[in-house]
UniProtKB/TrEMBL annotation:
The chain crosses the membrane at residues 36-62, 68-92, 182-206. Keywords: Adaptive immunity, Cell membrane, Disulfide bond, Immunity, Lipid-binding, Membrane, Transmembrane, Transmembrane helix. GO terms for biological process: adaptive immune response; regulation of cell population proliferation. This is Tetraspanin. SUPFAM superfamilies: Tetraspanin (SSF48652). The gene is Cd81. PANTHER family: CD81 ANTIGEN (PTHR19282:SF214), TETRASPANIN (PTHR19282). It comes from the Eukaryota. The keyword Cell membrane applies. It holds the Pfam family Tetraspanin. Disulfide bonds join 135-170, 136-154.
Length: 216
């Protein structure tokens, strides 16, 4: 059940419309940074393997097989080690993920402002960011006045003044998006880790109980 929950959360994060709209963008020959998906793929793998290992543990307990329970324990230790490694990686890279996406956005924004023709897709990339995150412009003076003089790049409002007042800068929105998603991943990882610790303890208790009962 825990494996199924983790797998479901990971698949939901993987196919979330906001992140997929942004991370599948391509600016010329440059692909949007998708380091964020590394953590998602690890969660998907852990969830799928946990489901399989869970069946293995159930079958070993029903059959009272020390071999299967020992294999179950070994698999849990490996999964736990992978999850700890993934957690450390995520903690180290949590700021870098949003930073890379913001740099990609800034490059597209500069191209969209300077482009005199439709030869590059900077304008399309920027509009996708703006429509997906309901924001306008980067976190600087140019971004602050963009709604007033480049209305074609920003989500449409009823008036220029309303556009200027209500539009948030995209750097802030990108930070909010990825910090929220990484927060969910962190909660899921902690829940899985706690469940794994209990599973390892209980599997060893059961294995020792089977060993002692077989003596008599």
């Amino acid at each position: 059940l825990a494996g199924g929950i983790i797998l479901g959360v990971a698949l939901w994060l993987r196919h979330d419309s906001q992140t997929t709209n942004i991370l599948y963008l391509q600016l010329g020959d440059k692909q949007a940074p998708n380091t964020f998906y590394v953590g998602i793929y690890i969660l998907i793998a852990v969830g799928a393997v946990m489901m399989f290992v869970g069946f293995l543990g159930c079958y070993g307990a029903i059959q009272e097989s020390q071999c299967l329970l020992g294999t179950f324990f070994t698999c849990l230790v490996i999964l736990f080690a992978c999850e700890v490694a993934a957690g450390i990686w995520g903690f180290v890279n949590k700021d870098q993920i949003a930073k890379d996406v913001k740099q990609f956005y800034d490059q597209a924004f500069q191209q969209a402002l300077m482009a005199e023709s439709e030869t590059n897709n900077g304008k399309a990339v920027v509009k996708t960011f703006h429509e997906t995150l309901d924001c306008c412009g980067p976190d600087n003076a140019i971004g602050a006045i963009t709604p007033l003089w480049r209305d074609d790049l920003c989500p449409k409002k009823d008036s220029f003044l309303k556009n200027f007042i209500e539009s948030s800068n995209c750097h802030k929105k990108i930070d909010e998006l990825f910090s929220g998603k990484l927060y969910l991943i962190g909660i899921a990882a902690i829940v899985v880790a706690v469940i794994m610790i209990f599973e390892m303890i209980l599997s060893m208790v059961l294995c020792c109980g089977i060993r002692n009962s077989s003596v008599y």
